Amino acid sequence: MKHTKSIFAIAFTAIIIFTACSHKSTPTAAKTPQQAPAQFNMMTAAAPSVVEGEKTYNAKCGKCHDLKKTTAYTANEWKPIMNSMAVKAKLTADEKANVMAYVMNGSKFGM
């Protein structure tokens, strides 16, 4: 019986030591959730703003023609539309990014 208690005490001590000395991992970039990349592949100094994009869309795009609902097109359909219309509307890079964020945010599902 005395021998069993000694083995138990040694095993218990070993478990505590191994647990205390084990490597504690910290989250790395690969383990932390990543933000989805921008679908429209545009870099701007500030993050695109959906709210500002809606304002610009209404003000500048609505100046020349009736506005389409964002759900009228899929994200992939909006890309070429925005690329051609941004030039005609003389949008700045920030305005284009914001309008793109707005239309992408409200686009219909599908490819």
Describe the protein.
The chain is mainly alpha-helical. It is about 55% helix and about 0% strand. It has helices at about 1-20, 50-60, 75-90, 95-105. The protein is rod-shaped. Mean pLDDT is about 75; it is low at about 30-45.
The radius of gyration computed from the alpha-carbon positions, rounded to a whole number of angstroms, is 28 Å
Number of DSSP E strands? 0
Distance between the termini: 73 Å
Given the helix and strand composition, which structural class is it?
A: mainly alpha
Unreliable stretches (pLDDT < 50, length at least 5) are 31-45
Shape: rod-shaped
What does the main sheet amount to? none
Strand content: under 5%
How are the secondary structure elements laid out?
Blueprint: H1 2-21, H2 50-61, H3 75-88, H4 93-106
Helix pairs in contact: 2-4, 3-4
